[in-house]
Amino acid sequence: MRRKNRRGSDKVNYILLAAAVLLLGASGVGSARAALTYFSENYTAQVEMYDIGVTLTETSAAGTKDISSRDYTGSGDVWEESRGALLADMLDETDGRLLPGRKYTEELAVRNSGNIDEYVRVRLYRYWTKEDGSREQELAPALIDLNLTDSGWIVDEEASTEERTVLYWPQVLPVGAATPAFTDTLAIDSSITSKVTTETKTENGVTTTTTTFNYDGVQFNIEAEVDAVQTHNAADAIKSAWGVDVNVGADGSLSLAR
Amino acid sequence: MKHDWIRKKTTWLAAGALLLLGSAGAGQAMAYFTTYVTAAGGHPVTLGYETQIEEEVENMTKHIVIANTGESDCYVRVKVFSGIQFPVSFSQEGGWTLADDGYWYYDEILPVGEKTSVLLAAIENIPEEYKETFNIIVVQECTPVLYGDDGQPYADWDREADTTTDIGTAGGEE
């Protein structure tokens, strides 16, 4: 009885093994067929490349340039990437010196540098750092006045904080097209210059008052993260990639679902 | 009983394995085309506003000059205090304007490393016995150059940073 049972379970094991081998074999056939299709002349003519790509552009007083881009090359997991720095030309306007209160030109926009249409969003960060690179928590991010334009970008108020602003471009961004700029100027609030500590000392009848600026040497920073996603099955794709619920209209217009 | 359970377990395992194999394909079908870029930038804020007053005294007249020794352009103003019995008369070669608040304002932005024109403050009618001990205080203040929405520079004297010098006895000696 026991032997019979063991034989029975052996049989099951053999069947399973055979099934596994078959499945493995079948998956090999699949790719072999795909390979054949790929090399067939009739089909190569119909191969479409779905290469997604996105570029962040910046316009300062010195002109417009591409800052960062990441475009799929169409083969394997190979991307053509470049990463630049924002604000590099900002102080050219004022001979390299930062003038508090002055509005510097800072127009940021997104271009579709791939060859499929896409939806894009931007997450903007602004914050202060001390001279040693650590965060300066005493200064409000709002003192970094990165002015948002009124050009159609949707601000996701619920996802935005004092330090972070989340923006969605509510239309399909066609291949080669650029969005309107989502920012236009950057100014550092001059109130940081009024925060001083004074120390008075009297020596030999002469009184000297030394004034120290509390925020001398702090650095302001801005950061932009641009995300792009395909337009096919947009609602599912955006939910999967960005984790947000959106409504997609028949004309391709995008709105946040709340 | 036990063997039934083993058989059942094997069947479930087989079903599970098949499901897993199937879902391996599903995972790929769910992948979407996405991409992203990031960029960052910033600049340090330099707030080194510093001015120094220079004064010479000749014939009971102070030659007041202010130098911008800081790292940023600024506006400057000066106020002179003296005993009420010794009025001060001012003269200059241009560049300074006396306002109602008693301050002399330098009209131009004072660039880094530059000096103002001379403001002369003459003390009149000092009796001989006071000439060695009279005391005049010159207050000089500077404030950063600010910019309005229209890009025009302006000074906001409510946020001045001031340094006071107490000038000693006549003759420019301390």
Characterization of this structure:
Chain B: Residues 153-174 are annotated as: Disordered. The complex is a heterodimer of chains A (258) and B (174). Chain A starts with a helix and ends with a strand. Chain A has two domains: 2-44; 53-194 and 215-256, Immunoglobulin-like, CATH 2.60.40. Chain A has 258 residues and is an alpha+beta fold. The model of chain A has no long low-confidence stretch (mean pLDDT 85). Chain A has helices at residues 2-39, 41-44, 234-242; strands at 53-60, 63-72, 79-82, 104-111, 118-129, 144-148, 154-155, 164-168, 183-188, 196-203, 206-213, 219-230, 246-248, 254-256. Chain A is built from three helices and 14 strands. With 174 residues, chain B is of the alpha+beta class. In chain B, the strands form three sheets. In chain B, strands 6-7-4-9-12 form a five-stranded antiparallel sheet, with no helix packed on it. A four-stranded antiparallel sheet of chain B has the order 2-3-8-5, with no helix packed on it. In chain B, a hairpin with a 5-residue loop joins strand 6 (96-98) and strand 7 (104-106). The radius of gyration of chain B is 38 Å and the shape is rod-shaped. Mean pLDDT of chain B is 75; it is low at 25-29 and 162-174. Strand 12 (219-230) of chain A pairs antiparallel with strand 1 of chain B.
